[in-house]
TrEMBL record:
Entry GO CC: cytosol
Keyword Transcription regulation: yes
InterPro entries listed in its UniProt record: ArsR-like_HTH, AsnC-type_HTH_dom, Dimeric_a/b-barrel, Tscrpt_reg_AsnC-like, Tscrpt_reg_AsnC/Lrp_C, Tscrpt_reg_HTH_AsnC-type_CS, WH-like_DNA-bd_sf, WH_DNA-bd_sf
Sorted UniProt keywords: DNA-binding, Transcription, Transcription regulation
SMART domains (alphabetical): HTH_ASNC
Leader peptide range in chain numbering: none
Domain HTH asnC-type residues, every copy: 24-79
Name of the molecule in the record: AsnC family transcriptional regulator
Pfam families on file: AsnC_trans_reg, HTH_24
CDD domains: HTH_ARSR
GO molecular function per UniProt: sequence-specific DNA binding
GO BP terms: response to amino acid
């Protein structure tokens, strides 16, 4: 996204937004997103109101996009994880994104370059249910599916750059 533009009604990105203090706030929140504002303020040596204002500004700008917990898909009975590439047929491009939004087993949908146009991450309780999910997309084009057998590098947060070392 270009700098100084608006996205989803949020404030514009500011290239100088990640100063030393904000980098420290982001690092602390990466390590423990459940920190209270007062504890976060104590850790960075600022007042709680000042920290709250900075965190809210980072949220409005879209730098902080949310605080969430991770749940193991297997704990919810989702034993199969698959990566599905979709190559839409003529006129089907918007319909693939709409189908992904309506399909709860699709936990990620990316628009990509190359021969395929979409990359989906799907969780399902069984191969049979995965097949049902794939069938929802076959009406819009071709699919190529890979079953995940292991995840040597699970999703992880991006490293926070140290602005003092730039």
């Amino acid at each position: 996204m270009p700098l100084n533009s608006r996205r989803n009604g949020r404030d514009a990105y500011d290239p100088g937004m990640i100063d030393g203090v904000n980098a420290r706030l982001l690092s602390e929140l990466h390590a423990d997103p459940r920190l209270s504002m007062s504890e976060l303020a104590r850790r960075v040596g600022m007042s709680a109101p000042a920290v709250t204002e900075r965190v809210q500004r980072l949220e409005r700008a879209g730098v902080i996009t949310g605080f969430h917990m991770d749940v193991a898909p297997e704990a919810l009975g989702m034993a199969v994880t698959a990566l599905v590439r979709v190559r839409p047929g003529p006129g089907q491009l918007p319909k693939v994104a709409e189908a992904a939004l309506r399909t709860p087993q699709v936990v990620e949908c990316h628009r990509i370059t190359g021969e395929d146009c979409f990359f989906l991450k799907v969780h399902a309780p069984s191969i049979a249910e995965l097949e049902e999910v794939i069938d929802r997309f076959l009406i819009h084009g071709q699919t190529t599916t890979s079953i995940v057998v292991s995840t040597p590098v699970p999703p992880r947060p991006l490293p926070i750059p140290d602005p003092d070392k730039s």
